[in-house]
Amino acid sequence: MKKVLIPVTNHATLGETDQANGTYSPELTHALHVFKEQGIDYDIASIKGGKAPLYGTDIEDDAVNSSILADEDFQNRINNTIPVSQLNIADYDAVFYPGGFGLLSDLATNEDFAKLSAEHYENGGILAAVCHGPAGLLPITLSTGEALLATKSVTGFTREEEIDFGTIDDIPFLLEESLTRKAARFNKAQPWAPFVIEDERVITGQNPASAHFVGEAIAKQLAAQ
């Protein structure tokens, strides 16, 4: 059985504000829905381990989000995330970073996950992320000393979407700008429209609507391995 490692944030607020935050639930649940349908296993991990903060858990008219959140196995995993220090990266076939603003404050600069992801990628593994999740790709440096993103075409949450969402003044940094500076190319589509970029084994999605399609792209690459 194929297995995906899902790093999530321990940071429970939007930047330095007191607004509840963490991982944006639908970006996790919609990808997990695809994994479950395809018989793909997963582990949820975080820098510190333990209960990971989620928001977007009360969205109406999102049956996928509601059903995954109601699943006892999922709740057990999100409330008992594996600390990064206990991971064996060789156990996984892909790494998927879901979004949410929380990770801008921890995974975006975390060297422990970055080293594991670099090793995973260099051993033929898949790296994927959606919305703010690509911030987790920023600190990844390959054994050559080159940034993972230096040769990659990616997407992620855009400046227009930050403005629409009312978060542009509270975020620790603007993801689009950071990705534009670090990646070979930053791509974007209309705000809030599903958009996925596959650059070989690096898969990125622009926004929450892209989470399902990132999950499908991961599953498709795993099936081809």
Keyword list:
225 residues, alpha/beta, 7-stranded mixed beta sheet, two-stranded parallel sheet, 11 strands, 31% helix
Q: Helix amount, in percent? A: 25-40%
Q: Report the sheet-strand fraction.
A: 15-25%
Which strand order do you get reading across the main beta sheet?
A: 5-3-1-6-7-11-10
Give the number of DSSP strands: 11
Largest sheet: 7 strands, mixed
List strands and helices in order, with pairings:
Elements: E1 3-7, E2 23-24, H1 25-37, E3 41-46, E4 54-55, H2 63-69, H3 72-79, E5 82-83, E6 94-97, H4 111-122, E7 126-130, E8 153-154, H5 159-165, H6 175-182, E9 185-186, E10 196-199, E11 202-205, H7 211-224
Parallel strand pairs: 1-3, 1-6, 2-4, 3-5, 6-7, 7-11, 8-9
Antiparallel strand pairs: 10-11
Helix pairs in contact: 1-2, 1-7
Explain the overall architecture.
The protein is of the alpha/beta class and 225 residues long. The chain has seven helices and eleven strands. The protein has a seven-stranded mixed beta sheet, with helices on both faces. A hairpin with a 2-residue loop joins strand 10 and strand 11. Helix 1 (25-37) crosses helix 2 and helix 1 runs parallel beside helix 7 (211-224). It is globular. The relative contact order is 0.18. The mean pLDDT is 98.
